[in-house]
Amino acid sequence: MTRVALAFDLGGTELRAALVDGEGRLLAFASVPTLAREGVMAVVGQIEMLAETVRREVPDAVVAGVGIGAPGPLDPKAGIVLGAPTLSGWHDVPLAGILSDRFGLPVGLENDANAAALGEWCFGAGRGANSLVFVTVSTGIGGGAIADRRIIHGRRGLAAEIGHMTITDTGDRCFCGAVGCFEAVASGTALGRRATAMTAAGDGSRLRVLSCDAAVTGRDVVDAARAGDPMALSLLAEEARWLGIGFTNLLHLYSPDVIVMGGGISNGFDLLSETIEATIRSRAMPAYRDVPVVPAQLGRHAGLIGVASLILRDEGEAMPPATEADLDHQPGATPAGPKEAIHG
């Protein structure tokens, strides 16, 4: 019988569930819109319903435990969601304890961005690395950092709020209230906002055509740039410069073996990478300039695979040393097999 983890990715818009095996493969998957405004127990009911759905797909699987990724801030060691801004009424919720009582299984809780970092480290673009920084560039900017084969949690699990490091003192105000956050200038939302300001409804520009004369999104900019639109290419060049500045800071802070970029804007990685690398070369100290920046490999399932890795290891086992095969594996290449993770 197959030993699996029951994995959940709890977002403010969508709740996703999967059965994941020890090689990072999704054996079953289901999702529903999150009842984000209806309180904790409404969402717990959805989690139970999705668990039944995916377990029916693989009835002979042995579920070793439950892993769940949720929006921060949260305390992974205590198993408490401290105050998820996208979930109404979620303040100091002992989610791990609630789910352990419901399922009668061990539960691992992790910040959703850290979970994605774990997934890419164990089975994706960072496999074989001793350390990495994962950055997701989408509606916002988030991420997670792994150092010496352990994820960095910091006090109460609040470390590596990558999107809210200050990289300028001008620009639009971030939703957190500050000016100059990495997220405020380099997220997909910020990219779309700049594109919208440079165009007008009905002006016939490719960006407005792609957006159907609504507000332009970051994805619209990537699509227009891929078609050769000069304005979109200019916007992406500016986006890549901001990303390069932010990534330079991450290199200096964490000294990772690799930076892995995910999120919706990573769909344009091939259009961004040259300027990102040039910015890093011009700003990073020489010792940091050879660190590769690579696109994520696991897509939207990285978080599910990451929280599964919290469960699919022997209880109490530390992260094993890198094997010779892992050390030969270059970060960013196609994964070649399983890897266990530690919830450090």
UniProtKB/TrEMBL annotation:
What family is this protein classified in?
Belongs to the ROK (NagC/XylR) family.
The organism that produces this protein has a lineage beginning with:
Bacteria, Pseudomonadati, Pseudomonadota, Alphaproteobacteria, Hyphomicrobiales
InterPro entries with a match to the protein in the record:
ATPase_NBD, ROK, ROK_cs
> What species is given as this protein's source?
Pararhizobium polonicum
Q: For the region Disordered, what residue ranges are annotated?
A: 321-344
Give GO terms: molecular function aspect only.
Answer: kinase activity
Q: What is this protein called?
A: Glucokinase
Q: Does the keyword Secreted apply?
A: no
Q: Which UniProt keywords apply?
A: Kinase, Transferase
